[in-house]
Write a structure and sequence with these properties.
This protein is α+β, with helices and mostly antiparallel strands. Helices cover 31% and strands 28% of the residues. The chain has a single domain, classed as Gcn5-related N-acetyltransferase (GNAT) (Aminopeptidase, 3-Layer(aba) Sandwich), CATH 3.40.630.30. An eight-stranded mixed β-sheet has the order 1-2-3-4-5-6-8-7, sandwiched between helices.
């Protein structure tokens, strides 16, 4: 997927340090992104797409994390500060939603401060966890903090304060 000076491709291991550098100022409690150790980013490379400029520099990144048979999450969306507002984020979200469709996912969740941005991609605010009790019981077994945020579990409340839960049907 391409827009004027940027294109999106699957992330590779050498991209991880650039992703980490963009994420660092936005990580941690009360920030826009869940804190991830460098090793966790390397482990998650297959989930990530990166936006690169004409010079091949990574200028944005985002991941699609499959949570259940019909449900995934857009997570870790970040664009280099000096390029915000130039369409890089929209390019990434569009590509992540296409990736979800290719995986036969029909619902995509995000937890965000950027509600207007995600609304442009068909996300709508939700108040509850949009899964049945049986699925909830299975998901609660996950060790993934992002899944815990989706389930609104007490152990991750500090990560979700101020965020809005959104869902897109694709």
């Amino acid at each position: 997927m391409t827009t004027s000076n940027f294109h999106v491709r699957p992330a590779t291991a050498p991209d991880v340090r650039a992703i980490a550098a963009m994420r660092l100022p936005n990580e941690g409690s009360g920030r826009k992104l869940l804190k991830l150790e460098l090793v966790s980013l390397f482990e998650k490379v297959p989930e990530f797409l990166v936006a690169v400029n004409d010079a091949g520099e990574v200028v944005g990144a985002g991941a699609i994390h499959v949570m259940w048979e019909d449900l995934a999450e857009v997570r870790s969306l970040i664009v280099r500060d000096d390029l915000r507002g130039q369409g890089v984020g929209h390019l990434l979200v569009s590509a992540l939603l296409e990736r979800a469709k290719a995986l036969n996912i029909s619902r995509v969740f995000c937890l965000t401060f950027e509600t207007e941005f995600f609304a442009k991609h068909g996300f709508e605010e939700i108040s509850d966890v949009p899964v049945d009790p049986e699925t909830f019981a299975e998901l609660v077994r996950s060790n993934d903090d992002g899944v815990a945020e989706f389930l609104d579990l007490a152990r991750v409340k500090e990560n979700t304060l101020g965020n809005t839960r959104m869902l897109a049907i694709i």
